[in-house]
Amino acid sequence: MGKLRIAIISDTKDQIDGIAIGLGRLVAAAQRAGHEVQLIGPADLPTAMSASLPFYPQYTWCLPELPALTTLLSRTADLVQVATPGPMGIAGLIAARMLGLPVLAQYHTEVPDYAARMTRLPFVKRLVSPYVGWFYRQANVCLAPSQATTDRLLELGIPSAQIQRVQRGVDLALFDPARRDRGLLAQYGIAADAPVALYVGRLSREKNLRVLRSAWQQIYAANPLARLVVVGDGPQASALDGAGVVRTGVLQGEPLAAMFATADVFAFPSETETFGNVVVEAAASGLPVVVAAKGAAHEHVIHGETGLIYGDRASSLARDVLLLFADPQRRARLGRAAREHVLAYDLERAMIATWEMYGELQRSFERGALVHVPHPAWREQPTPRRHRVRQRVSRAAARLRSSVSS
User: How confident is the model at residue 22, as a pLDDT?
Assistant: First the structure.
């Protein structure tokens, strides 16, 4: 086998979210190391159809032209990783199957929970979950960045043998306590000695912002000098507006890293994280974090040592933030321990481990040990119908391979 070529396909490549940021950093680190990897998004291919999401107009689903995607993969990929179960992910899955390439699917987003929270219709979760489970069952291997994600994939019916834990990392040189600069607060009208809580992330319903809003009202009532700095944007951009709240909009790179290091406490109420990049970035910046007990974000926190984990009540979040505001020595101790704890999340180390995993999976596929097992519902179809469908798929794939090679 020559140099391994990886194609990662994502519906959100061109957005500012955890998926795009995390994958972008991984790809950049791999390319610096000389690996052949590309991140493919809607803007990289001709579009057959597109539509904005009704409950999230900032996001547009784009269905790529399948022949163009298949041609691209046939020339540039030995292994395909799909990052999202949207139109790009579906197209990537189909194209890879037609070309006989192994498919990895990473579980980045709690799509069923997001759909229910965005629509405010709990039953939507039950409608979306079967589709998400079907999508991930089509992959040779499902990648899980956390224990919470592993558990979720099992709930969706993915066999444990099909699930592979994958290491994630952040740029520890960028997110560094040395970037702390209280003078930075002046440009946002914040006094240098004000207690500052920080939230970084999308401003949308699935992030549980109502809990943070309620908690902040209690915090501000107890300490009117305190400020909540909100970094990010989204369909609920004004959800946290109120007394003592300062919105910066989207920050990236060094300005974001400086804000992390400059705040006093990181408050993160999201209960739907599959990993929680911002929690690790905050810890790397020497910031004690207060996170929800649900989801995966709390997996990066040792309660009482590197941060605090609260239950599901806004009053608990408010209490913990106020306790840290009132105890500078404890904040400093937790912040130092947080930084030390997340040194294991080094981006370069994560990239090396991920590339080694890609190589092992590719070798397993070539040995025939990594063969996709159809879902039981497919195997239970009557034999004549199953045979006819397989014949059609085989003929279509043969025609496509022929057109690509010619």
Answer: 87
Same domain, 21 and 141: yes
- Residues 151, 262, single domain; the answer is no
**Residue 82, both tokens:** 């799909």
Domain end position, chosen among 345, 365, 397:
345
Same domain, 10 and 138: yes
3-state helix, strand, coil in the chain (%, to 5): 50, 15, 30
The pLDDT of residue 35 is 96
Dist. CA 289–CA 200, nearest whole Å: 12
Range(s) of the domain holding residue 382: 378-406
Name the region of 249 (left: φ>0; alpha: ψ -120 to 50; beta: rest): left
Per-residue model confidence as pLDDT tens digits over 269-311: 999 899 999 999 999 999 999 999 999 999 999 999 999 999 9
Residue 357 shares a structural domain with residue 335: no
pTM: 0.84
| pLDDT band per the 50, 70, 90 thresholds, residue 393 | very low
Predicted local confidence at residue 39, as pLDDT: 95
Domain count of the chain?
Answer: 3
The set of long-range contacts for 59-68, using a CB threshold of 8 Å and a minimum separation of 24, is: 59/12, 59/15, 61/11, 61/86, 61/87, 62/11, 62/87, 62/88, 63/87, 63/88, 63/91, 64/88, 64/91, 66/91, 66/94, 66/95, 67/400, 67/403
Is residue 405 over pLDDT 60?
A: no
Q: Quick one: 125 and 191 in the same domain?
A: no
